[in-house]
UniProtKB/TrEMBL annotation:
It holds the Pfam family C1-set. This is Ig-like domain-containing protein. Residues 192-283 form the Ig-like domain. The chain crosses the membrane at residues 296-315. It comes from Hucho hucho (huchen).
């Protein structure tokens, strides 16, 4: 019977949640190596590492290439070579350590088939006063719910000494180097856009505060009811999510019953962010007005399109009818002229003329 390790969460999710917990201020920055070791039949390399500066990927390493690839915005040959050498050394050690640990786990649980996954996250953070701290954590869970006990005290002491005296200086040096080159990326400030949305749901309405398009990721979003903050336990959502374009978004929603809606509460969304000098506020009335105006604009555009289509359809028909009438008039005129000519010729041929005397009486024919 094979047992498959279940990975609790992806490396990026672990990184994001950890940054929220430990990042005291915006001025502190961190460098992270997020490693995954996999055994079994998979299309992935056995060992991969993603390197993150704060929340921006700046490097990659895997056991197939055995080289550190810098993926930042600014690259120079010298710094790239230095980082590649340090990265290959450190990640090679982590690779062997994770392989040895997983070998012991497989032997302990008698695992012979299936896919086994182990994840490790290590990094350092540099605070405002240049004080440096490091992190070294391993994440794995198993179907049978039993974890292998930690290594003996001597091995733990060895790893602690290795991280404090070898890996931490390398990490801090690399952090300072990459931060100097990528400061325009990780220290940029993009102001948020704020919306207050009201929509009908079963049993009432849902009032939502949506803030999006902002960077850095830290933001304060509050939903106010009659000027007072709504308790967090009444709200749903509240998790900052990436938007896929290098910015973030956050939504908080409140369920409002039909009876409560009759009380005509005043709802307001307020957001504060590093890119803003003052708080950003949007009320439900202004949001409703925007929706009303946008709907009215859409209706006007549709009416204009219908009118233009009607003009384009009717004008060719009018032109066609006018042209037909003009042709008929020309034909009638030609027929009339043709019909008059033989009559005059006939009279000339017979030599008949009529004369009128001064009294208006006919004298006769000659």
């Amino acid at each position: 019977m094979s047992t498959v390790y279940r990975v609790e969460c992806s490396l990026r999710a672990i990184l994001v949640s950890l940054i929220i917990d430990i990042k005291a201020t915006w001025r502190s920055h961190s460098l992270w190596a997020l490693a995954t070791y996999i055994t079994g039949e998979t299309p992935f390399p056995e060992f991969t590492v993603v390197v993150m500066l704060d929340d921006v990927q700046v490097g990659y390493y895997d056991s197939n290439m055995e080289n550190f690839i810098y993926r930042g915005q600014h690259i120079t040959d010298k710094t790239e070579d230095d980082e590649a050498q340090d990265g290959a050394h450190v990640f090679g050690d982590i690779y062997q350590s994770m392989k040895h640990r997983l070998f012991k786990l497989k032997h302990h649980f008698n695992l012979t088939e299936g896919v086994q996954v182990q994840q490790k996250m290590a990094g350092c953070e540099m605070l405002d006063n240049d004080y440096a701290i490091y992190y070294n954590m391993t994440h794995f869970t198993y179907d049978i719910g039993i974890l292998l006990l930690g290594w003996d005290g001597m091995m733990q002491a060895y790893e602690r000494t290795l991280w404090e005296n070898v890996y931490l200086p390398i990490c801090i040096r690399t952090l300072k180097t990459i931060l100097k080159r990528e400061k325009n990326v990780v220290m940029r400030k993009i102001p948020p856009r704020l919306r207050l949305i009201k929509k009908e749901v079963s049993g009432g309405f849902q009032v939502s505060c949506l803030v999006f398009g902002f960077y850095p990721r830290h933001i304060n979003l509050t939903l106010l009811r009659d000027g007072q903050p709504v308790a967090e336990q009444e709200l749903t959502g509240g998790e900052v999510l990436p938007s896929g374009d290098g910015t973030y978004q956050l939504r908080k929603s409140l369920e409002v019953s039909t009876e409560e809606l009759k009380q005509r509460h005043h709802y307001t969304c307020t957001a504060s962010h590093l890119s803003l000098d003052n708080k950003l506020d949007v009320s439900l009335e202004s949001g409703a007005e925007r929706v009303h105006l946008s709907t009215l604009s859409a209706l006007l555009v549709m009416v204009l399109i219908v009118i233009l289509l009607g003009i384009f359809i009717c004008l060719p028909r009018r032109w066609s009818n006018t042209a037909s009438l003009s042709k008929l008039a020309n034909v009638d005129a030609k027929v009339s002229e043709v019909s008059k000519v033989p009559s005059l010729q006939t009279k000339q041929d017979t030599g008949e003329t009529n004369t009128i005397d001064n009294e208006g009486k006919g004298i006769g024919s000659s």
